[in-house]
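Handout, page 2. Input:
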Amino acid sequence: MRAAHAIPVEPSADQVIDAILQEASERAAQRQLATRLAAPAPAVEQTRPALQAVFRIDVRSEVFRRALESISPNIQTVGFAGFFGLTTSHRRFASDVPELRLPVLLNPALTSRAGRPEDSTTDQAVRFKSRARRAWGRFKLAAVSSFAFVEAAGPIYLAQLLGDALGLRRPPGPIDPEPNFDPRLDLATRARMAETVLRAMSLTRAFGRLVLLVGHGANVVNNPQASGLHCGACGGYSGEVNARLLAALLNNPEVRSELASQNIHVPAETLFLGALHDTTTDAITLYGADHPSPSHQQDIEQATVWLAAAGKITRSERALRLPRASGERTIPQRSRDWAEVRPEWALAGCQAFIAAPRQTTVGKRLDGQVFLHDYTWQQDTGFGVLELIMTAPVVVASWISLPYYGSTVAPQIFGAGNKLLHNVAGGIGVVEGNGGLLRAGLPWQSVHDGDRYAHEPLRLSVCIDAPREAMTDILRRHDGVRALFDNQWLHLFALDERGRMAWRYAGDLQWIVNGESSAR
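Output:
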């Protein structure tokens, strides 16, 4: 006798109609994307860039990258995974708690901590304050005390609430000292890490004088879902630690010498700097003090001007989507407003993932709906980088897309309910109101603006500029990834040499000519 769950589900007539309409909606979105990608790319001068900036493959980064490149032809941006290829277990300054700054698919291979041994005296003083702060925070959020705490201690927080309401306080940003690897990490390992990362981001030549490694995070107040605005590839933390660690690695003269032996020649005058993109305010923090360089001061000052201008352009574009935003000047204050339920849209609207050279997408408006990963298959001997992209970033992107999809089409099952009614329970989740089950997924305010949906529920379209045979071989070796496409949780397309969505994956390791492509 077969188990009930093993019996195939017979769809009803309404479900068949819904499936057809879902497919039609996705085909329409894919046709629009194909039209944009097929448009001629603007001519780009093949000169050494004055500024290179490596951003997280996040739909919010697409808007900022496009804005930054529009300011000067001497600016080049790159898209790469937010943990920058460093799977590190990190300890903040004065903390004994290891933070896994890596995707949940992976295990930590490195350890790092903020500060140096000579900071031990300061470390001890801060440690006591941090422990007291954490203990107080755990008490406030404990299952027993959380509901009674507001009534008993509310008046104590009156001044703080007024300051937050009037925008007089700024949420604290990451202020840790420079992070450092475990000193036992040998040179050969560090050089191998650096080579792997540079090849994975297709950045092995034509280095600029200044290269920014830009992680991302969000400074918000009164937001239990704040980790959802941070970097998913960094375990729900902000991404500055991984960016600063990689900058230190690539600035090391011994590591550069080893890279040269692998035919990756980083010019002596190239300086790498870690940075942090605050996705709520679109401000960029440069960690220039990590690597003081008087000879690069003018470059850093020029980059600061460019980044500020790009931030203004990005905020102006984002203000068109955010409720009650009246221009770019009103955007930063949303991060300081404890009553703001939509400080930003996060990844609402995500529709596609593209792994291709930047030339394929540069200058093309993708409306903050696309994950952009730079990839040049001609430099990928053996297709190891392609395999990494398809088995890690693509999978993580699907994990991002599907919760938005579920929280939109079935909010009562997959959503977190009304954010206005949330109470944090035990520091592990939220309940809606004063009881009931913990709510998973995204709150209604993250996918709906009060009048209409902010997220269109579409299954993610993955577009990769690589030979079909190579992608087929990878799918053949990875059943879990293949199941995502064979079972139509994701769509897969192969781009041709002109950036057109020429081939569609049809399942069972077969490809067909894409009907939405203008390649025919």
